[in-house]
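Exercise 7. Given the encoded structure of a 361-residue chain, write a plausible sequence.
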């Protein structure tokens, strides 16, 4: 069935159109998500029955219909799906068929999250440029230091003194490798259709090999997830970096859960996606310290002695290459990092299909 308001279908905010009896004549997908009711259930139903416990709000809508006027309220307290919610509400009178009032409901928490995500992406870009420039400046003298150490080694009269020049060479190589990682990617992405569970299982195998003693890694997979177009190696590295970070927070002893789910009506970087694949890494560790929570994805930020602070930053970059997002929730005893990857068609991801039906980059 064709939507009477096609322009509203992809909006991230919930939009409902009501008739003169406040029965729903149209609901966009975001409204289905907000009200926890499918469109078939919403259409033709009284809004008061879909939003029980909000008599004052329903009365205000009825008055708006009677007066043929609208209103705009920034902080409106409602009870939605049995939970209190603070929303921004705009009501506009309309006349199209049976429609008399259009209302837009935007959860303030969602609005704050979208603004925070936009600011974070902007900050990430600035940080990447800063780190890239810094890495270039550091790489230049490293070659000179290494070369000088090798020349000095040849001139040393006592072989045991060469141990110190070898330290200089090895540490210079380590810094060189670190700079190269900061200047990633080294290769062009290879886009192919991939099964995210194969990625998750590979991560699980690597973790159990690295921490054979006391780490328990559980699986909680949704087998109905579709294959996604993406770069297998970079996505594997992103999930592995997140999982390793969790294992290190546990000191290799504790419980971790790898979980996959489908997420519906997801907004990423101001783009609305009908479906996204959710890859979760949950652990029962101490949680992310408050002083790190706001900067944990920034380069060179680490909560461990000896940590480079690049693991989560690189993971964020790899996920952004897939048009995705990493979020996390943390509390003592439970921390969950979630990678959201939008479900896009192979053509949208730059994957061509030959007549054989096989996908090729």
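Solution.
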């Amino acid at each position: 069935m064709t939507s009477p308001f096609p322009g509203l279908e992809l909006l991230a905010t919930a939009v409902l159109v009501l008739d003169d009896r406040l029965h729903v004549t149209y609901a966009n997908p975001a409204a289905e998500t907000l009200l926890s009711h499918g469109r078939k259930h919403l259409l033709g139903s009284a809004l008061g029955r879909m939003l029980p416990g909000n008599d004052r709000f329903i009365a205000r809508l009825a008055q708006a219909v009677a007066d043929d006027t609208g209103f705009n309220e920034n902080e409106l307290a409602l009870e939605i799906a049995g939970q209190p919610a603070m929303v921004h509400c705009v009501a506009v009178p309309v006349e199209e068929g049976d429609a008399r009032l259009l209302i837009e409901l935007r959860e303030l928490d969602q609005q704050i999250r979208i603004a925070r995500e936009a600011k974070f992406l902007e900050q990430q870009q600035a940080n990447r440029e800063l780190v890239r420039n810094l890495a270039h400046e550091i790489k230049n003298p490293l070659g000179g230091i290494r070369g000088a150490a090798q020349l000095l080694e040849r001139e040393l009269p006592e072989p045991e003194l060469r141990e110190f020049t070898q330290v200089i060479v090895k540490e210079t190589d380590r810094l060189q490798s670190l700079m190269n990682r900061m200047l990633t990617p080294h290769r062009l992405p290879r886009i192919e259709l991939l099964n995210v569970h194969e990625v998750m299982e590979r991560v699980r195998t690597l973790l159990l090999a690295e921490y054979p003693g006391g780490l328990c890694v559980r699986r909680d997979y949704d087998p109905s997830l579709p294959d996604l177009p993406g770069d297998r190696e970079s996505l594997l590295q992103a999930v592995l970096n997140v999982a390793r970070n969790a294992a290190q927070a546990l000191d290799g002893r504790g419980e971790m859960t790898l979980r996959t789910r489908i997420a519906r009506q997801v907004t990423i970087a101001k783009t609305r996606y009908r479906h996204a694949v959710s890859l979760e890494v949950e652990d029962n560790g101490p949680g992310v310290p408050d002083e790190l929570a706001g900067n944990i994805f920034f380069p060179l930020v680490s909560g461990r002695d000896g940590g480079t602070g690049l693991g989560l930053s690189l993971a964020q970059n790899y996920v952004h290459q897939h048009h995705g997002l990493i979020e996390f929730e943390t509390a003592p005893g439970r921390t969950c990092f979630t990678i959201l990857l939008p479900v896009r068609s192979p053509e949208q991801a730059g994957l061509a299909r030959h007549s054989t039906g096989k996908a090729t980059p």
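Remark. Residues 108-155 form the longest helix (48 residues). Students should compare their own answers with the one above.
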